[in-house]
Amino acid sequence: MYTLIWTPRFTRSAERFAKQHPELRASFAAVLRVLEQDPFQPHLKFHNLGGKLRGIQAVSLTHDYRITLTVFITEREITLLDIGSHGEVYR
After folding, report:
1. Residue with the larger pLDDT of the pair 89 and 85
2. pLDDT tens for residues 64-88?
3. How many of the other CB atoms lie within 10 Å of CB of 66?
4. Distance, CA of 4 to chain centre
């Protein structure tokens, strides 16, 4: 089991995201539950980012929306960084 760490930026992004996309609240909650269990499950499409976002990973919420995060395997922690559309989180 992993511990989810909500950064202040992620908390703001998640609140804004939930207001803008109420239809995705259940999916968002489900992805967070799965992340706690195993962030490497294939349906999350876990991937490492490159370029200026090197060292950060992402998972898919839907085809259009992503959650960026960092995973510290030795501590079994996941630091949640941002949520939003592909263009928003990869800026």
Report:
1. 85
2. 999 998 888 778 899 999 898 888 8
3. 23
4. 10
Total domains in the chain come to: 1
pTM of the model: 0.87
Q: State how far the Cα of 85 lies from the Cα of 75, in Å rounded to an integer.
A: 29
Name the nearest CA neighbour of 21 among 68, 79, 67: 67
45-59 b/e (C-beta count within 10 Å ≥ 16 → b): ebeeeeeeeeebbbb
Domain residues for the domain of 68 are: 3-89
Tokens of 86: 């592909």
The tens digit of pLDDT for each residue in 5-56 reads 999 999 999 999 999 999 999 999 999 999 999 999 999 999 999 999 899 9
| CATH code for the domain of 80 | 3.30.2310.20
Q: Show the tokens assigned to 47.
A: 């991937």
